[in-house]
Amino acid sequence: MHYRFLILLFLLALLGCQSSTREKHVNETYPDVTIFFVNDVHAQLDNFAKVKHLVDEVREKNDVILACSGDIFSGNPVVDQYKDRGMPIIDIMNKVGFDVMTLGNHEFDYGADVLKRRIEQSEFQWVCANVDMKSFGIPQPESYYTINVGNIDIAFLGLIETRGKQGEVIPSTHPWRVKTFEFQRAKDVLDGYENLKQQKDIEVLIALSHLGSNGNENVIGDFQVANQFPYFDLILGGHSHQRIDTTINNVPVFQAGSYLRYLGKIQLSFDDEKITDVTYEEIDLSTVNEYDKDIKKLVDEYKAEMDSYLNEELGFTAAFHSKRATGSLMAEAMRVKTQTDLVFQNTGGVRSTIDKGKITRREVFEVDPFFNGMVKYERTVGRIEEFLEQSESGFYYSGVIIKQEKGDVELYDSAHNLLNNNKVLTVGINDYVAAVHDIFFGNDGKFLDYTSSDAIIYYISNSTQAIDFTANHNYFRYDVP
Fold first, then answer.
1. Euclidean distance between the first and final Cα of the chain, in Å?
2. What's the confidence (pLDDT) of residue 299?
3. Could you tell me which of 187, 188, 226, 185 has the C-alpha nearest to residue 205?
4. If 352 and its partner were Cys, which of 155, 236, 366, 370 is the partner (CB 3.0–4.6 Å)?
5. For the domain with range 29-303, which CATH number is right: 3.20.20.70, 3.30.1490.270, 3.60.21.10, 3.90.1640.10?
6. Superfamily of domain 312-477
7. How far, CA to CA in Å, does 397 sit from each of 167, 327, 368, 411, 477?
8. What is the pLDDT of residues 355-413, one digit of tens each?
9. The pTM is what?
10. Is residue 7 pLDDT above 50, yes or no?
C-alpha cells in the first residue's frame, strides 16, 4: 500500500510538471524578429559601414539576425589581391556582426588552402547541406545552423549551385580548385530535411540559398525549391544577381541584387510559434547617408594599404569599353602575350568594363580577378570548329574570323580566306576554359608561367598608342539550328 501511494504521488507530480510546461509554453510571447541579408557581395567593401549602422539601429529595439547568401570573394582587388587573399572582407564581416553565411561558387576561387584560412578566420557560422569538405582537411560547414532569438528557434539551411561543368556536379568555379570536395545536387539532399522542424523543435526554417532563382529538372533554383520542397518558411537567395520579392507556392522568395548595392530587410511576426506576417524591404544603400565610423575607418585603411599598387597607370583609352569591347581587348592581349594564332576568352571571365581615360592595374584586376593561368595548345581547324559547336558556350576571340553557315562553323584568316580543316593552329586559352572543356583541351598543352591578367597588363603596358577595341565585335556563340 505504501509503494502504491508513492507511485501515485510520483505520477501526480509528473502530470503537474507537464501541465506546468504546457502552460508556460502557451504563455510565452514571441517578439518580432528582423533578418537582414546580403548576397553576391563580390568583395565590395564601401557599404558595409552603412549596413552596420542600419543593423545596429534595429538591434537596439528588436532581435536581429544578419545573413549572407554567398559569393563574398572575386570582384574587388583590395580583397582579391591582398597579401592574404580574402582576409579584409572576413575581418569586416566579423566586425559588422554577421551570424551565418552559405557557401557560394566564388568562395572556391582562391583555392582550398585559402578557403580553409578564411573559414577559420570567420566568427560567423558557414552552412552548406550539399558539400563534403571534412574528408579533405577543410572545416566542414554545418548543413544548417539554428539561432535562438527571443523564444524562437530559426534555422538556416545552406545550399550551393552545381552548374559548373557538363557531366559533373560542381559549382561554377575553376574545376581544378574543387577537386578535393564532393558536391551533391540540391534536389538530392532536400528530402532529408522535410521533417527537420518537428525533429529539432524549430519554429522557422530558412533556405540560405546560392542556387540562383531558376533552374531546371536536374539543377533546381529557388523557384523550384519553393515548388518541390515547400517546407521552408522563407528562401533567401543568391547567385543570379537579381532583385526578387515574390511568393511561390506560399513560400516567400527574396534576393537583394549584388555588389552590396542593396540590403534585404525581413520582418517576421509571430503568434503561438507561427509566422503570422512577413514583410520585406529592399534598402538601396546609395540613399543611406549615415554609417558606422569604425567600419568606415577600417575599410579606408584596407583601401589605402593597396592604393599605390592598384592605382599604377598602365596605359590609356580614349573611349569607354563595354564588356564586349573589353572581352575583345582581353583576347587580343592574351594572343599577343602567348604568341598564338587564336585565343578564346570565356564571357563569364569578363567581370567589368573599362572607363575612358587612364587604365590602372586596379581596372585590370576588376575585369579579370580569377588568377587563371595561360595554356598553349595545337589544334586542327576541324577540332576547333567541333569545340565551338559542342561547347554550349560563348567566347570572345582574336586571331581569326569565325562564321556560322547554317549548322557549320567555319574559320577564316584575316584576309577572309577559308581555313582548311586539317590546318593546325596554335590556340591560347586560360586554364579555366581548359578545365571546363577538357574533352577538347587536355593535358597536352604547354602551361605558361603567367596568368591571363598578367597578359593583359603586359599588353596595355607595352602599347604605344591609346587602347581602342570599341569597334571590335569578336564574339561567337554557336546557334543550334
1. 92
2. 99
3. 226
4. 366
5. 3.60.21.10
6. 5'-Nucleotidase, C-terminal domain (3.90.780.10)
7. 25, 8, 16, 12, 11
8. 999 999 999 999 999 999 999 999 999 999 999 999 999 999 999 999 999 899 999 99
9. 0.91
10. no
